[in-house]
Amino acid sequence: MATQHSRSAARLMMAPAVILLLGWMLIPLTMTLWFSFRKFLPLRGGDLGWVGFDNYTRFVSSSSFWPSVQATLLIVGGVLVITVVLGVLLALLLDQPMWGQGVVRILVIAPFFVMPTVSALVWKNMFMDPVNGLLAHLWKAFGAAPIEWLSQASLTSIVIIVSWQWLPFATLILLTAIQSLDSEQLEAAEMDGAPVLKRFWFIILPHLSRAITVVILIQTIFLLSIFAEIFVTTQGSFGTKTLTYLIFQRVLESQNVGLGSAGGVYAIILANIVALFLMRIVGRNLDA
What is the pTM of this model? Predict the structure, then answer.
């Protein structure tokens, strides 16, 4: 059992790291809050003084605010559904003995290590281009007119691109969880005559609930700030302008740091609401 002296020594040694981490988080947050209450135009006069909640009112009353929130939630929800469902199926498939199993697993996980801008460019030019893209040639081979993905199905295109990036992460976490499943349970169920679907529904899926929870929570944190894929492909057009992209437009394109900072505070509030919702609805599995 640790003594009071050893616990005090441990706290003392951890203090520098904790202080650095708090400073790393609190200083940018404090600056964002400060600028959100001021009219700060770097190229048009600089700091023009205190404006109170005017930036918050202007940002939320913008015609682009609620559509950007809706687009953000639709992208997050679509990616989570695709990555969890396909991640479970791929994890079950990769858990089966096959020739070249190690190589196949590496190839499945590889897209996760591709930079978002690179993967967005690959999908934009090699797959979704309406003239020279692979999907366009596939459509023509079946006698159908090619789809202009980034304009006719823009939101779907973003969901597909981001899902391709995050599917390997979900697969890796779920595969690890499947490999920790006691095989004797499945063998006993199979000997009792339980069909495959029932073994999956009553044994495998409950065992994966904690891993699915982790996948959903971690992906949601990163997906709420999605930006690079939209910037490279649609640049916020055709209903793909997320809250993060709207903040980018307000800060860099409009050169209004105060208005963008107010948007950043709204993004923090949205992220916390989504996180609390997930922790209540899905995160209960972590305590199970």
Answer: 0.85
